[in-house]
Write a structure and sequence with these properties.
Its main location: membrane. This protein has 410 residues and is mostly helical. The chain has 17 helices and no strands.
Length: 410
């Protein structure tokens, strides 16, 4: 593979992984304009985000088996075509109900990029390079929340919120062209692979029976769903409550994205001295304390705009530590069923994000309390699940050690 081919493939895979982050973050500055234009409320517009997260949660479970059965490109073309058409539908909608439906379809199509990109990395690169390539793709995904809201804010002001979805459709059309002309096929179709529900569900059930997976997948899903409460609630809090402009909101969102990105690099250093279990526990305790201060301070009226931004920054710093470690621990017990485990974990994480986003919408009361309260509940729930789950894991491990020792003695 030449350097040019390497760069081209990384570029295409990187754009595939950013479809969903851009689709989530880019239209956030347009929430007030969408609500005004469609004669509805911010809380109803927030449901369009919830619908998108639900679509991602279910879509990942669907595309995993399809990509193995039919090869990489055919499901990829199909999913991206659905996404493109749904994006145009979002731009042309004249009701909030249609927007919510189109966002659901948009997610069901676009999430193929997340699954296919990871599968193609395994197909196209040597084992020794996979970690490096995935790190590059992770960096692209991490940087996208810093770019998307800013672009969306300026596009909303200059061209209206409809233009955001037309821009997304145009980008997707270019990605499809790039896939056709420059992306290798990857793994060939496997006609022997069964797509029967019983076979697929059997693999998922095998994964769910593992206590370590269930514990850390629950922790990963619930604790790391907190940013979705922030994403769902922040447009109303900042633009309606604190009266910032669309462009200013984009810059605030970009600044707070640093709080999530930076600790992922710190995690690599911490892992040299501490176990993942220790890092997760300490981080959730930290986020619970910061979250409670955030809730009490919001209720007491301590925070202005800059104070709220500062407290959110401190809280979100924990997200870059919990997610990677919980993911690693949840996948650790598996080799044969690692794909099913990854699909389940990704689906569960987005499902929790959808529930959290929906909760912020339901609790909407024109204050920051729904947003900060739901974020704090996520941390507290994650901490309680972690403590309870680790007891089950350690008990099972100790029981297995006793049985093994007994067998040796006999």
């Amino acid at each position: 593979m030449t350097r040019r081919q390497y760069f081209t493939i990384i570029l295409i895979l990187g754009t595939l992984t950013t479809i969903s982050p851009f689709s989530i973050d880019m239209y956030l500055p347009g929430f007030p304009a969408i609500a005004n234009d469609l004669h509805t409320s911010i809380s109803q517009v927030q449901l369009s985000l919830t619908a998108y997260l639900i679509g991602i949660a279910f879509g990942q479970l669907i595309y995993g088996p399809l990509l193995d059965r039919f090869g990489r490109k055919l499901p990829l073309y199909g999913g991206l075509a659905i996404y493109l058409l749904a994006s145009v539908g979002c731009a042309l909608t004249n009701s909030i109900e249609t927007l919510i439906l189109m966002r659901l379809l948009q997610a069901l199509g676009g999430c193929v990029g997340l699954v296919a990109a990871q599968a193609l990395v395994r197909d196209l690169f040597p084992v020794t390079e996979i970690a490096q390539v995935l790190s590059l793709l992770t960096l692209v995904v991490a940087v996208s929340p810093m770019i998307a809201p800013t672009v969306g804010g300026y596009a909303t002001v200059a061209l209206g919120w409809h233009s955001i979805f037309l821009i997304l459709a145009g980008i997707t059309a270019l990605i499809i062209v790039g896939i056709y002309y420059a992306l290798p096929d990857g793994k060939a179709p496997d006609p022997a692979l069964s797509l029967r529900p019983r076979a697929v569900l059997g693999n998922f059930f095998t994964v769910l029976k593992q206590p370590q997976f269930l514990t850390y997948a629950l922790v990963s899903g619930i604790a790391t769903a907190a940013p979705f409460a922030y994403i769902s609630g922040s447009p109303d809090v900042f633009m309606n409550l604190y009266k910032v402009t669309e462009q200013q909101y984009g810059w605030i969102f970009s600044f707070l994205a640093i709080a999530i990105i930076a600790p992922t690099q710190l995690n690599r250093i911490l892992l040299k001295r501490f176990a993942s279990e220790q890092i997760i526990y300490t981080t959730l305790v930290y986020q619970t304390v910061v979250g409670l201060l955030l809730v009490f301070g919001t209720w007491a009226g301590w925070f202005g705009l800059h104070g709220l931004i500062g407290m959110l920054f401190l809280y979100l710093c924990g997200q870059g530590l919990t997610g990677p470690n919980a993911t690693a621990l949840s996948l650790a017990p598996f080799s044969r069923h690692a794909g099913s485990a990854a699909a389940l974990m990704g689906s569960f994480r987005m499902g929790c994000g959808a529930l959290v986003s929906g909760a912020v919408s339901v609790l909407h009361n024109h204050t920051a309390m729904p947003m900060v309260s739901v974020m704090t509940v996520c941390s507290i729930s994650g901490l309680l699940i972690l403590v309870a789950g680790q007891r089950v894991i350690y008990h099972k491990r100790d029981h297995a050690d006793v049985n093994s020792a007994s067998e040796v003695a006999l």
